Amino acid sequence: MHTRDLSEHVAYEAGRGIEEVARELGIDPANLIKLSSNENAFGPAPKAIEAIKARAPSVHSYPKSSAADLRARLAERHDVASEQIWLANGGDGAIDCLSRAMIRPGDGVLVPDPGFAYYGMSSRYHHGSVGTYPIRKAEDFEQSAETVLNHYDGERIVYLTSPHNPTGSEMSASDVETIATDTDEETLVVVDEAYVEYSDSPSAIELIDGRDDIAVIRTFSKVYGLAGLRLGFAVVPEAWADAYARVNTPFAASEIACRAGLAALDDDEHIEKTIETAAWARAYIYETFDGPTWESAGNFVLCEVGDGGAVTEAAQREGIIVRDTTSFGLPECVRITCGTREETKRAVEVFNGLV
């Protein structure tokens, strides 16, 4: 007995955690600052914590009503029908739902390089193929419709990331619309907006009305601080929104996740503090880091350090965990998540002593 041929599949490489680094280096976890996974520096939204505690006694029940409540709330917020909100187990779960709904064996997807590995992984799981378009360091990681369309070859799904991870660059709404218009009728343009709350740019959700070829992925992992609960969603065109019931796993989002998500949406103080601190941290890194950086619209900054792997290891010994971007094809860089003011200052101090 063997699995099917998985030779073309690559395991997802997550940012390193405090516990594993502490064990490896033999140091107290309390002495480490984790800035490797673009998590919320302030933790979960406090109102979400209250909701989690309040709902804990009811987890014996399936989350039918809570999921309906959350879909309705998100639909109201984004001015779409509730059927257009596809709840999922994180943003990657939303990607899987779209793969199930769209990809036929042999269909291709077009993904950014560098980019989120799961776009291609999900396509391969569903017997699709993967093509890439470049986001080049030599062009300061600029994203454009021209570059995407020059590499487009009739793929079923085209993935765009705005803000882009790990570079922080954005794709304009006009370019998203151009790509959707200039690709085939049966091509879906998916815009991953995991970090959009940190940006001043408009959401591509505004483009969905009246179209059947644009979808948007969002997450509660970043600004709302609920990464550990795995809650995300897609906003899809109304024309085929009813496909969700046929491709969704039973109760893809848990009772606790849905109730925490509803509460987090109301936690304005936490959201504002998170966004304001990330903006401060980005500016501080640009101004004080002793090396090249790139302007970011997310809660992280890409920094050039020389040998990213070696510098990352050295920083860990100084108590700072960041993301070595070798797996993104950028071995000379690291990605630093925006921490609290104290964490960000300490991170820059450590890296300025290493680069």
TrEMBL record:
Signal peptide: none annotated. The gene is hisC. The keyword DNA damage does not apply. This is Histidinol-phosphate aminotransferase. Its cofactor is pyridoxal 5'-phosphate. Keywords: Amino-acid biosynthesis, Aminotransferase, Histidine biosynthesis, Pyridoxal phosphate, Transferase. The modification N6-(pyridoxal phosphate)lysine is found at residue 222. One of its GO terms (molecular function) is histidinol-phosphate transaminase activity. InterPro entries: Aminotransferase_I/II_large, HisP_aminotrans, HistidinolP_aminotransfase, PyrdxlP-dep_Trfase, PyrdxlP-dep_Trfase_major, PyrdxlP-dep_Trfase_small. Pathway: Amino-acid biosynthesis; L-histidine biosynthesis; L-histidine from 5-phospho-alpha-D-ribose 1-diphosphate: step 7/9. It comes from the Archaea. SUPFAM superfamilies: PLP-dependent transferases. It holds the Pfam family Aminotran_1_2. Belongs to the class-II pyridoxal-phosphate-dependent aminotransferase family. Histidinol-phosphate aminotransferase subfamily. Its EC number is 2.6.1.9. It catalyses: L-histidinol phosphate + 2-oxoglutarate = 3-(imidazol-4-yl)-2-oxopropyl phosphate + L-glutamate.
